[in-house]
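Weekly sync, protein design subgroup
Attendees: M.S., D.O., the rotation student, P.L. (late)

Item 1: inverse folding check
M.S. brought a backbone from last month's batch and wanted to see whether the design step gives back something sensible before we order anything. D.O. pointed out we never logged the input encoding, so this time it goes straight into the notes. Structure tokens as presented (693 positions):
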């Protein structure tokens, strides 16, 4: 959620924080906050996503905690609340993301601080959690309250940069992520200063070690300004947050702005607006008085609007104060449960809020255990989704358009829809009346503005219960007919990736060239080869509890390539990996290349969702061993300047890797001609009834 201006106030008054040594404790982690920060603060994003680097960053973070005997428990946000309290706020953030994309594409990476989180980060993060066996859970909706309840029940701190946690009554405080120093230090009986001076040498495995962090406690803040704790929820609510439209508070803020402007406080000033709310809230005796005071200063709002505002203010205050019990899922029981069925706690039943049908228990189970993306919950519960704009050419069609067919099949699988029969008159009226009973509402972009696209699901026979039947269903959706599937002797994972590449090759708009395809396949092989190299050079990789899934056909080719030829391949790809790309955000042609690879990401993501909806019959690797789009961009850019490249400099002819490379490209490009753009549009309109508004 977040409180407007509160983080700036807290960090401006750094004396509020306490410096502590973090070790030998449980730690409740706001996972949805962490996975954003780990990418935005450490990994380049201007080329679409370097997921290998991101995965390594996440692993380093969690391994550091483990070395300090910190037991991490990761709690993720779930889907959008069906009550729509935060829907407008979410839409505004997505619109702001589109503007950030325009800024990033219009300038050199060094000239802007804007960030756009790549769309496969969440999936990459989950793979790291599973690989390192970090306990994790996804709450049905926003997780802040559940995190707070769990932290107090377990008597441990929270890790998050969400300013809401500055308000909750957390007995052991909150550790801001930006305040963490991951340098390992030995835990000795000496002063903090002398311990810090030993950072040049790494502690041994036998030593007890810690990391230095800053911890915020609500008690320090209220003691500093001499107010009771009930002051904090009032401050958070009337400063403005996701529950309350800030436009409705403008009259209130104007009324108190001058009244308190000359008052002094034992805090360094941050936002003048926030400081005026601080002074005002210090004199409030009750929550009801505060609500009535604000409503008396609201102009141009009808009685119904004021009633809704009152409810929003009340809900906001309650969301901060009621943290004695879990609201949606008992996380203590979840994390303490054994693996046998009898001991598993009730995950709760989700309801389709449009049709009012309960969703299957297995669906909720997969969502809670993060085996299914919250995107699918938003489809099944709310019948609407919002797409995150990628680094893409805003003058071109959205990168999500090319994968609409996959999603239309997906929507038919996981919703309770029935084909409506309607007259021509009813067809006109159904655009505005109960539209989500018939369609899934996709919030996408048209150029640099938000746009709704409504898609009627494609209804097919539900696949059988066997994994093989579900695999064939996925391959068919991706355009691999039974004859083509049978001709591919490869493993299911390889067939899946070939299907994604083929779908991308067929449906991309603007069309991609063969150089894009070559770069993608080389990228897959490159990251697999890097993983093998890391296994040999890094002792930490060998200590992971669970080795990650890899693509069997690529592994087999690498193992058969031999050391000398793999060294030759590594030498060649290093040229592209180390090549500078500082100019990419200034050139229209180069943005077009990035746009093409962003379309690949949406095809992969939609196919991934389809696989999850069918209970994952295909075992897929992490994006961290598939996608480094800076590398793919560099390879593609280099290929644009070459002619008749047989790739013998990377893969000696008739070597296992060359045969793999050639067979994948042949399966994608040569067995069927690509349809024309007009034919594709007709196909989409007939089968999905895309309705723009």
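Designed sequence read out in the meeting:
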């Amino acid at each position: 959620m977040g409180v407007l201006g509160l983080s700036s106030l807290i960090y401006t008054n750094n004396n509020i924080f306490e410096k502590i040594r973090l070790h030998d404790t449980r730690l409740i982690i706001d996972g949805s906050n962490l996975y954003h920060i780990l990418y935005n603060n450490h990994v380049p994003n201007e080329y679409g996503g370097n997921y290998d680097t991101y995965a390594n960053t996440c692993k380093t973070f969690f391994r550091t905690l483990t070395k300090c005997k910190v037991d991490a428990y990761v709690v993720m946000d779930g889907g959008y609340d069906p009550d729509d309290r935060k829907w407008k706020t979410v839409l505004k953030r997505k619109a702001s993301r589109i503007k950030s994309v325009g800024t990033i594409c219009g300038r050199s990476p060094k000239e802007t601080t804007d960030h756009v989180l790549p769309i496969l980060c969440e999936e990459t993060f989950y793979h790291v959690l599973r690989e390192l066996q970090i306990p994790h859970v996804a709450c049905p909706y926003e997780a802040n309250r559940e995190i707070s309840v769990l932290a107090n029940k377990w008597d441990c701190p929270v890790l998050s940069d969400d300013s809401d946690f500055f308000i909750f009554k957390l007995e052991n405080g909150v550790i801001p992520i930006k305040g963490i120093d991951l340098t390992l230090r030995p835990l000795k009986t000496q002063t903090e200063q002398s311990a810090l001076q030993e950072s040049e040498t790494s502690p041994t495995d036998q030593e007890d070690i810690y990391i230095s962090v800053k911890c915020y406690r609500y008690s320090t803040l209220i003691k500093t300004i001499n107010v009771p704790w009930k002051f904090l929820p009032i401050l958070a609510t009337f400063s403005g947050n996701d529950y309350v439209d800030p436009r409705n508070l403008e009259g209130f803020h104007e009324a108190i702005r001058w009244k308190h402007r000359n008052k002094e406080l034992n805090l360094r000033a941050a936002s003048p607006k926030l400081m005026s709310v601080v002074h005002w809230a210090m004199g409030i005796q009750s929550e009801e008085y505060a609500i009535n005071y604000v409503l008396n200063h609201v102009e141009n709002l009808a009685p119904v609007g004021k009633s809704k505002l009152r409810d929003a203010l009340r809900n906001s205050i309650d969301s901060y104060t009621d943290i004695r019990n879990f609201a949606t899922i008992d996380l203590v029981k979840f994390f303490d449960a054994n693996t046998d069925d009898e001991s598993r706690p009730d995950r709760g039943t989700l309801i389709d809020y449009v049709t009012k049908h309960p969703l299957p228990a297995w669906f909720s189970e997969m969502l809670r255990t993060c085996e299914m993306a919250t995107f699918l919950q938003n489809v099944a519960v709310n019948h609407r989704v919002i797409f995150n704009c990628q680094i893409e050419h805003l003058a071109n069609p959205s990168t999500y358009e090319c994968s609409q067919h996959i999603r239309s099949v997906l929507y038919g699988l996981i919703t309770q829809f029935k084909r409506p029969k309607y007259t021509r008159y009813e067809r006109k009226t159904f655009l505005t009346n109960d539209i989500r009973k018939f369609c899934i509402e996709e919030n996408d972009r048209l150029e640099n503005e938000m746009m709704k696209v409504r898609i009627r699901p494609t209804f097919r026979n539900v696949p059988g219960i066997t994994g093989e039947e579900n695999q064939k269903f996925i391959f068919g959706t991706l355009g691999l007919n039974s004859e083509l599937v049978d001709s591919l002797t490869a493993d299911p994972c390889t067939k899946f990736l070939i299907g994604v590449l083929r779908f991308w090759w067929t449906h991309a708009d603007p069309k991609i060239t063969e150089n894009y395809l070559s770069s993608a396949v080389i990228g897959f092989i490159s990251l697999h080869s890097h993983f093998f190299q890391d296994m040999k050079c890094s002792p930490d990789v060998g200590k992971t509890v669970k080795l990650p899934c890899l693509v069997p056909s690529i592994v087999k080719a690498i193992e058969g390539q031999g050391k000398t030829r793999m060294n030759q391949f590594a030498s060649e790809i290093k040229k592209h990996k180390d090549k500078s790309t500082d100019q990419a955000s200034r050139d229209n042609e180069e943005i077009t290349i990035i746009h093409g690879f962003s379309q690949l990401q949406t095809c992969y993501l939609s196919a991934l969702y389809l696989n999850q909806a069918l209970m994952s019959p295909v075992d897929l690797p992490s994006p961290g061993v598939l996608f480094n789009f800076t590398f793919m961009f560099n390879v593609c850019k280099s290929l644009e300047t070459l002619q008749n490249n047989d790739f013998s400099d990377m893969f000696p002819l008739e070597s296992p890797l060359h045969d793999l490379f050639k067979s994948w490209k042949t399966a994608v490009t040569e067995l069927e001609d690509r349809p024309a753009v007009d034919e594709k549009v007709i196909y989409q309109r007939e089968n999905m009834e895309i309705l723009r508004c």
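Discussion: The first strand starts at residue 18 and ends at 22. Residues 189-201, 674-693 have pLDDT under 50 and may be disordered.
Action: P.L. to compare against the previous round before Friday.
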